[in-house]
Design a protein that fits this description.
Distance between the termini: 9 Å
Oligomer: single chain
Radius of gyration: 18 Å
Number of helices: 7
CATH class of the largest domain: Alpha Beta
Strand order of the largest sheet: 3-2-1-4-5
Number of domains: 2
CATH topology of the largest domain: Nucleotidyltransferase, domain 5
Largest sheet: 5 strands, mixed
Shape: globular
Number of strands: 10
Order of helices and strands: EEEHEEHEEEHHHEHEH
Strand content: 15-25%
Bound molecules: adenosine-5'-diphosphate
Length: about 260
Amino acid sequence: MITIGIDIGSTATKAVLLNGTKELYEIMPTGWSPKETGKTIVSRLLEKGHLRRAQVSKIVATGYGRDLISIAHKTVTEITCHGRGAAFLVEDADMVIDIGGQDSKVIKIHRSGRVIDFIMNDKCAAGTGRFLEVTAISLGLDVSELEQYHDRKNMVSINSMCTVFAETEVISLLAGGIGKEKIVAGLHSSVAGRVANMAKKLGVGSKIVFTGGVSLNGAVREMLKLHLEADVLTPALSQYAGAMGAALIARDMAN
Ligand code: ADP
C-alpha cells in the first residue's frame, strides 16, 4: 500500500511517500502557489519511486497551506501530524518542539503520538525561522551558515521582541562595531529561550524531540538544551515530522 503525506509550510513544502517498508522524501520551497507546489511535489515523489498516481491509496495534507491544495483526500492539523510524526521518528518521545518558518509550537504527546496538550506561537515571528532568516539576510549570510555562531560566553543579548525591531537592533549593533558572531549567538539564544519558556509552561518532557527547519541549526539545538537543562533529540528527518505524521495518518485511513 502506498500513501503520501504533504506538509505545506509557510516557507517549505515537505512530502513523504510510504510504500511498505520503503520511504521517499522530497522538499521544495512553497512559493506563491501552494496548489501547484502540492501537485509538483507529488509528481516528484512518484517519479523518484517509478510509481503512478493511481497506485497511491491516500494522500493527507497538513501545514498552513493544507486547505489550498486539491489533491489530498483529507486535511489534518499540523499539531496532530507533528505529534504522530515525532513519535514515529523517536520512540517514547513525550514532547515535541517544532520551530518552522513562521511559527513555533510545543506539543506534549503520548508515546503513540496522540496529542495531550500544546502551545503555539503564530502571532509573532520572533522565535521562528523567519526571525533567523531576516537576520541572515542583514548579515549577508545563508541560514545554513548561522549555526557556526554559538558561543554563549561571547554574545550580546537581543532585547527586541519583534522581528522588525530586532532587524533594526542588529543593524545598530553592527554599526556600533559589535561582531556578527556575538549578534548571531545572541539571536540563537533568544529564539531558544522563547521556545524553552513555552515548554516550561507545559512542563518540560523527559524525551524531547526537536523538529522543523530550525532544528537543522546546531546552535539553536545546543542553546535549547541549555535553556531547558534537558537533553533534546533531533532525528535525521526532523524537518519531515509533519509530513511523516500525515503519511502515517493516510496509511491508517487506507487500512
Ligand atoms: P514551514 O513548515 O513553516 O515552512 P520549516 O519547518 O520547513 O517551516 O522550516 C523553515 C525554516 O527552517 C526556515 O525559515 C529557516 O530558518 C530554517 N532552515 C531551513 N534550512 C535550514 C538549515 N539548513 N539550517 C538552518 N536553518 C534552516
